[in-house]
Write a structure and sequence with these properties.
Shape: globular
CATH superfamily: P-loop containing nucleotide triphosphate hydrolases
Order of helices and strands: EEEHEEHEHHHHHEHEHEEHHEE
Largest sheet: 8 strands, mixed
Number of domains: 1
CATH topology: Rossmann fold
Helix content: 25-40%
Radius of gyration: 21 Å
Distance between the termini: 25 Å
Bound molecules: iron/sulfur cluster
Number of strands: 12
Number of helices: 11
CATH architecture: 3-Layer(aba) Sandwich
């Protein structure tokens, strides 16, 4: 762990969406801690609840149809879910900032990058315009934008996809946040640019001491970037632990399947890539059993009747699966 100091505690978070067909339990009892300077990966298929978890952390769930129905999100001991809106607005973009998959959804195409960055820095850092622009140029330079003093006065469409994501990283880190939430930050980029952006993000956040929550569907992305991993399935964390432990000894059958489906260049013998059979479950009115059982080749009778207990191992990792219930 980068540092033992816990800066964010998510406790039994529950976020539901009330739709005509029933209740979608998008996030149902998620808990984890984030330490200072740690990079935590949240991995899962589409619809597993990873993005909703992070939107819940910064209290940005559209209500209706969504509602955070339970749990706590303690940022330095203060519950963000109980904070008045004007107070949490001071935290969003300042102490906790976010970057998304497509920078064009966050950047205003009609405004120059300078306007967008300088206004944010002035608002949150209480700097005058000149100092804010200097800070913005410094951040663009750190993010690897060539000739930042010229490019800052360009519009978002004048940047390539990879360069726009660099601008987003520079914006996200410009107010020295304690936490950066990055939601699939490289999914829209081609593979070589992905690697550069991940390396840049990792390098910058380590240098600035920022903790990161990296949301991704790809275990390949978390392998080289994250200290710890939470694997989500159907709105819950099914396995969590240090990245090295999870890759060396994945315990949940779903994690095992995910790892077997990642191409490995370090394996001598090429092998056929595994694919997990079946589809993710429909999360409307899910019964309280193991939601992975229709896809699990080790399922037992109890898996269809009760949700598995969470079992902790000596190395601090935890798994929710009936195969390990005896260790409980
Ligand atoms: Fe498979 Fe049962 Fe474990 Fe679920 S609880 S992953 S069905 S063995």
């Amino acid at each position: 762990m980068a540092d033992e100091e816990v800066i964010l505690q998510v406790k039994n978070l529950q976020t539901y969406f009330m739709v005509d067909e029933g209740i979608v339990k998008a996030v149902d009892g998620v808990s984890f801690d984030l330490h200072k300077g740690e990079t935590l990966g949240i991995v899962g298929e589409s619809g597993s609840g990873k993005s909703v978890t992070n939107l819940s952390i910064i209290n940005l769930i559209p209500n209706p149809p969504g509602k955070i129905v339970g749990g706590e999100v303690l940022f330095r001991g203060k519950d963000l879910l109980k904070m008045p809106q004007d107070e949490i607005r001071q935290i969003r973009g300042n102490k906790i900032s976010m970057i998304f998959q497509d920078p064009m959804t966050s950047l205003n195409p009609y405004l120059k990058v300078s306007t967008q960055m300088v206004e944010t820095i002035m608002l949150h850092q209480k700097l005058d315009k000149k100092a804010a622009k200097e800070k913005a140029i410094e951040m663009l330079m750190l993010a690897g934008i060539p000739a930042p003093e010229k490019r800052i006065d360009q519009y978002p469409h004048q940047f390539s996809g990879g360069m726009r994501q660099r601008v987003m990283i520079a914006m996200g880190l410009s107010c020295n946040p304690e936490i950066l939430i990055a939601d699939e930050p490289t999914s829209a980029l081609d593979v070589t640019i992905q690697a550069q952006i991940l390396e840049l993000m990792s390098d910058l956040t380590k240098r600035l001491g920022t903790a990161v929550i990296l949301i991704t569907h790809s275990l390949g992305v978390v392998a080289g970037t994250c200290d710890t991993i939470c694997v989500m399935y159907a709105g819950r964390i099914v396995e969590r632990g240090r990245t090295a432990d999870i890759f060396e000894n994945p315990r949940h059958p779903y994690t095992q399947g995910l790892i077997r489906s990642v191409p490995r260049i370090d394996k001598e013998n090429a092998y056929r890539l595994y694919s997990i059979q079946g589809q993710p479950p429909n999360v409307i009115d899910l019964p309280d059993c193991c939601p992975f059982y229709p896809r699990c080749d080790r399922a037992m009778d109890i898996c269809k009747k009760k949700y598995p207990v969470s079992v902790k191992a000596e190395n601090g990792s935890a798994v929710s699966c009936w195969l390990y219930a005896e260790e409980h």
